[in-house]
Amino acid sequence: MFWVISYDIPNDKRRRKVSDILEGYGRRSQYSVFECDIDDAKRIKLEMRLMQVIDKDEDDVRFYPLNEADMQRVRLLGKATLERKRGFYIIQDEDGRERADEPF
C-alpha cells in the first residue's frame, strides 16, 4: 500500500529522529512529507518506532493511505514527481551474467 506520511513536530531533536526513521521506509517528497510504498507489517513497525520517539501531547504524525484508484487520481504540479517502489527481474543470460530486466 502507498502511504503519504506527514508530520508537524516543534522539537528539532525529535523532528530529526522522525525524519531519519522515515527515510528508511520511503522518499521525502516535501520537507515534512514522505511517500512510502510499504506493506502492513512494515507500516505497523514504522508506527511503533515513531511512537517511541514522538511526544503524543506535542507532535502530529499522519498516515494517509492511497490505493491503486487513488494513485491514478494524484495530480502533480511544478517539479513534483511520484515515485513508487518498482520490482524487477534478474535475468541470467547464456553466459551466466545477470542483468535487471523490465520493471513489473
Structural class: alpha+beta
Please tell me the CATH architecture by its name: 2-Layer Sandwich
Mean of the pLDDT scores?
86
In angstroms, what separates the terminal alpha carbons?
16 Å
Task: Characterize the structure shown.
Helices cover 29% and strands 33% of the residues. It contains three helices and six strands. It has helices at 12-23, 40-51, 68-73, and strands at 2-8, 27-30, 33-37, 60-66, 88-92, 98-103. The two termini are 16 Å apart. The protein is of the alpha+beta class and 104 residues long. The chain has one domain (2-74, 85-91): 2-Layer Sandwich (Alpha-Beta Plaits), CATH 3.30.70.
Q: Features of this protein?
A:
104 residues, alpha+beta, Alpha-Beta Plaits, 4-stranded antiparallel sheet, two-stranded antiparallel sheet, 3 helices, 6 strands, globular
Q: What's a concise summary of this model?
A:
The protein is α+β, with helices and mostly antiparallel strands. 29% of the residues lie in helices and 33% in strands.
